[in-house]
Amino acid sequence: MAVQASELQDSPESTTVVVIGAGPAGMTVATLLRHSGIDCVVLERRSRDHVAQRQRAGIVETRAVRMFDSWGLAERVLGGVPYDGILEFRVDGHSRLVSDSDGSEGPPARLCPQQILVQKLTETFLEDGGDLRFEAADVSLHDLTGDRPTVRYRTADGTLRAITCEFVAGCDGDRGVSRTAVPDGELTAYAFDHGIGWLTVLADAPPPAHPLLATGREGFAAHFPRGPHASRYYLQCPPDDDPGAWSDGRVWDALRTRLGDPALVSGPITDREIFRLRSLVHDPMQYGRLFLVGDAAHIVSPMGGKGMNLALYDADVLARAVRDFVRGDDSALRTYSARCLRRVWNDQEFSHWLTRTLHDAGDCEPFLRHLARARLDRLFTSPAAAGAFAELMTGLDPTGEAVSHSALSDVTGGGGDRTGA
Ligand code: APR
């Protein structure tokens, strides 16, 4: 329930940016702002333990590693191990290695589970004196198109509080309150259901030598490292399938068949669920002084590992733009949405291409299966195709780095103009 102004016990606090949500997006925005000496307050609905344990993505792409490096923060916020950039494809059990190495200078990607990144960002932010408030309930956003928005919330002990600010960073994921604070009709939603389900399984079982994507007549499967002793597996299934229908024995049998590895070592399964592959983009990613960051603005299907990396991209663009604003230049804030959306659509296209290729190459009607296998063949034989793939995997493609002047949107008043897409 939204906190009413009349219920507030104290006069409002004041800061430069209120960050809503302490996931990868929110903690990156907050850490970069704090590092720039800019005041911010982070409001997170859940407890610190809950946020620190949430397992999802597992790879910080090369571009994102170099982004943290450019802030002088890579050593402090990145855990895990460097990734050698080699991805294994198995088609009908035959293995092909594809490298994302483009010969460029700089640190490589990292196999860094999301919860490790969030834990380290949180530690860094707090060590630098950051203000992070967990278990903030009933967060609500007000006056987003005025000069000073207000964010209200209820503390864990029930006290009602308000914070006024220059900007709100909406980093509260797909089901948060930030986007719902935008009046109907201001944002356009582009939604897509891929018609594919994935059973995702987390197990205490040896990780693969390289992240592994497999396709064949039995369908798609994948095997990714999650730390030195754990793995995440994916198995294509009907979108409405029942996880209860997947006994441990059935999971391991299907993985051995689809990965083409009869000797695959099993281990205790610690988590399993089924989800539909879907994609979603909200345009623009701004309303007045509210900026949407990460999953609050877009969902990308997991193929290609772009979800968390897009969130890190948005966070970097926003933090730099706020830093410029504080120094008297609002032009980067005005291009925030257009710039992020260019990369979002670029990565949506890559993820969609890889999703279709690996699923169509498996259990699909013959014409589409042949097309998908021709695409894989090109990837495995053409240096130019492999180079384009590497550029997309690393995130080092130049997409989104320049935005034309006509894409500027209004930061300081009105509802943000309808640019982009
Ligand atoms: N008030 C405060 N906090 C909230 C609220 C709310 N009303 N609603 C949600 N949150 C918090 C959640 O508890 C969570 O900690 O916002 C955070 C959102 O985090 P994520 O859902 O992880 O979103 P984001 O940070 O954008 O993540 C980016 O990483 O692995 C991927 O799937 C993940 O693609 C996503 C990406």
Walkthrough of the structure:
- It is a single chain.
- With 421 residues, the chain is an alpha/beta fold.
- The protein folds into two domains: 253 residues, FAD/NAD(P)-binding domain, CATH 3.50.50.60; 76 residues, D-Amino Acid Oxidase, subunit A, domain 2 (D-Amino Acid Oxidase, Chain A, domain 2), CATH 3.30.9.
- The protein contains eleven helices and 21 strands.
- An eight-stranded mixed sheet has the order 7-6-15-16-17-14-18-21. A six-stranded mixed sheet has the order 9-3-2-13-20-19, covered by helices on one side.
- A hairpin with a 5-residue loop joins strand 15 and strand 16.
- The longest helix has 25 residues.
- The radius of gyration is 22 Å and the shape is globular.
- The C terminus is likely disordered.
- The structure holds adenosine-5-diphosphoribose.
Summarize the structure.
The chain has eleven helices and 21 strands.
**CATH level-two architecture of the largest domain:** 3-Layer(bba) Sandwich
- Broad shape: globular
Q: What's the gyration radius in Å? A: 22 Å
Largest sheet strand order? 7-6-15-16-17-14-18-21
What's the total number of strands?
A: 21
Which small-molecule ligands are present, each listed once?
Answer: adenosine-5-diphosphoribose
CATH-assigned fold name of the largest domain: FAD/NAD(P)-binding domain
The DSSP helix count reads 11
Outline the fold blueprint.
Layout: E1 13-14, E2 17-20, H1 24-35, E3 40-43, H2 48-53, E4 59-60, H3 62-70, H4 74-77, E5 81-82, E6 86-91, E7 94-99, E8 110-111, H5 114-127, E9 131-133, E10 137-142, E11 150-154, E12 160-164, E13 167-170, E14 188-203, E15 212-215, E16 221-225, E17 231-237, H6 248-258, E18 269-283, E19 286-287, E20 290-292, E21 298-299, H7 307-326, H8 331-334, H9 336-360, H10 366-381, H11 383-394
Parallel strand pairs: 1-12, 2-3, 2-13, 3-9, 6-15, 13-20
Antiparallel strand pairs: 4-8, 5-8, 6-7, 10-11, 11-12, 14-17, 14-18, 15-16, 16-17, 18-21, 19-20
